[in-house]
Specification:
The chain has 14 helices and 18 strands. The protein is of the alpha/beta class. The strands form two sheets. Strands 1, 2, 3, 4, 5, 6, 7, 8, 9 and 10 form a ten-stranded mixed β-sheet that branches. Strands 16-15-14-13-12-11-18-17 form an eight-stranded parallel β-sheet. Helix 7 links the parallel strand 13 and strand 14. Helix 5 packs across helix 6 and helix 6 runs parallel beside helix 7. It is globular and about 70 Å long. The two termini are 33 Å apart.
């Protein structure tokens, strides 16, 4: 978005395409489902001569209510749309959608609870015979663009920066979003809790990303490299292990029915379904812990989500099964996009890179963009650099030492690390048995996370076999990071 301005001219909108940034929020009912439905309705072409398309989302944040404190916490974000609608027509469309989803737009009680809240923040019109856009200014009694109060709302500025960047200049105030946010934080006199980035799950649950998320590995396979066969003898055995990991502090249980160890051949999908779905269904019957399905197959992903899983974890990043991205988009659940070349059977022959950090970061950015185009939006994405997948020992170490670069290129997507008991740890330490590599596993995670000092370095997940030990390590590193942030903040005052 460019910082020049163009006055609102209703007659010009038939000749221009437009981009609009909306703030989206909800604090009643199933918050993410409300937002998701609102955006679907907003993009429906009711009249066959108007078009609106969702092209990008921010990350989601859970925020304490502002102005009226006695109400539930909000789920807030921002989206960028392409549309043929004028600001006035967009406002009417928004009011129609909000009403359809149960909001009383005639309620005189301002800033109260609402199933969905959509606000126009910025509007742009495409210049004639050009690919450039000019911001639109509107100043009417019921519509002001840019939004008149955006500079006093952290829950608007942060998501907006996800979309257009902190260096975007406010068309009227002539300050960057980064400057406006810094000024707002400096002027804060209350103790309002900071917004927390989240992953939204089915049934109105969220995973808070203000701590390192520990994902416990539950392989219900006879041939996994670390614990093959240990949890596959019966559904009950697998579920009991999942419950033990939950007691040990796991935030998520990752259920996998196909081994993806180096050299592994593709498994029949029906076998994978038979291994995973009964375990997920039974685990969901006895626990509300978030569950992810570790699969490359769209049919398995859908069956798992239908059985009670919440997240799709695809080691191919949606490349193995061409139906995967569209399937996850329809399911509207979080997805882990991992980097891998080839297949487990061939990947170790494809471990040569010109620059492994740059190449993997660029590939991850491309996968993220492909997922967004398919409808797997950024607020549901997690990336995984694929440690041990089509990488040699040196490549693994270089990636672990440069998460900051990966986070920068992918514009601060949450990162999951899957180093647990991997072969490169054994080669470095001379430890042959995978089960004896937990100390090396913890070292990889602690070192990687400590070396990443980027602004969003706290948005991390680790996928591990030994939940108890790794959870303890992550609690300590999170505490150190928090103290370091407090110290840096004090030194700036």
């Amino acid at each position: 978005m460019t910082p020049s301005t163009q006055e609102d001219d209703h007659d010009s909108y038939t000749d221009f395409n437009h981009r609009v940034c909306l703030a989206v929020g909800s604090n009643l009912g199933n918050r993410f489902e409300n937002i998701h439905k609102a955006l679907q309705l907003l993009c429906i072409d009711d009249s066959h001569n108007t078009k609106t398309k969702l092209i990008q989302t921010s990350f989601l944040r859970e925020t304490a209510p502002m102005y009226l404190s006695e109400q539930p916490h909000f789920l807030n974000g921002a989206v960028m749309l392409e549309t043929s609608l004028s600001p006035r027509d967009m406002l009417q469309r928004i009011k129609s959608v909000e009403t359809r989803l149960g909001r009383n737009i005639n309620d005189t009680k301002r800033n109260g609870p609402r199933p969905v809240d959509l606000d126009i923040i910025l509007y742009e019109a495409k210049r004639r015979n050009s690919d450039d856009y000019a911001p639109v200014a509107v100043n009417e009694p019921d519509l002001v663009v840019p939004h008149a109060s955006m500079q006093e709302r952290e829950f608007v500025l942060e998501p907006l920066m996800d979309l257009v960047g902190g260096d975007f200049t406010h068309p009227v105030l002539n300050q960057t979003l980064e400057q406006l946010l810094a000024q707002l934080r400096n002027d804060k006199s209350d103790a309002t809790a900071a917004a927390v980035r989240v992953l939204a799950l089915p049934r109105n649950r969220v995973i808070h990303l203000n701590e390192t998320i520990v994902m416990g590995i539950l392989n219900v396979t006879p041939d996994s490299f670390s614990d093959g066969g240990r949890w596959s003898s019966s559904v009950e055995t697998a579920v009991q292990q999942a419950l033990q990991m939950e007691r040990d502090g796991a935030h998520v249980i990752d259920v996998g029915g196909e081994s993806t160890r180096p050299g592994a051949k593709e498994l029949d999908v029906n076998v994978e379904l038979q291994r995973t779905v009964p375990v997920i269904r039974q685990l969901r019957n006895v626990s509300d812990i978030p569950i992810s399905i570790d699969t490359r197959h769209a049919i398995v992903a859908k069956a798992a989500i239908d059985a009670g899983a919440d997240i799709v974890n695809d080691v191919s990043g949606g490349q193995f099964d061409k139906q995967m991205l569209s399937t996850v988009a329809k399911l509207a659940v979080p997805m882990v996009l991992m980097h891998m070349r080839g297949t487990p059977e061939t990947m170790q022959l494809l471990a040569q890179y010109e620059n492994v950090v740059k190449d993997v970061a660029d590939a991850m950015a491309e996968r993220s963009a492909a997922a967004e185009r398919a409808g797997v939006h950024r607020w549901t994405q997690v990336i995984d650099p694929g440690i041990g997948f089509a990488k040699g020992t040196k490549g693994n170490l270089q990636l672990l030492g440069n998460l900051k670069r990966l986070r920068s290129v992918t514009r601060n997507l949450p990162i999951m690390l899957g180093t647990s008991r991997k072969g490169f740890i054994g080669r470095l330490t001379g430890t042959d048995a995978a089960k004896d590599r937990d100390p090396g596993t913890i070292a990889t995670m602690v070192a990687a996370l400590c070396l990443d000092d980027s602004a969003d370095a706290g948005c991390n997940l680790v996928r591990v076999h030994n939940v108890s030990a790794c959870k303890q390590a992550m609690v300590v590193i999170d505490a150190i990071r928090m103290c370091r942030q407090d110290t840096n903040a004090e030194s700036e005052e």
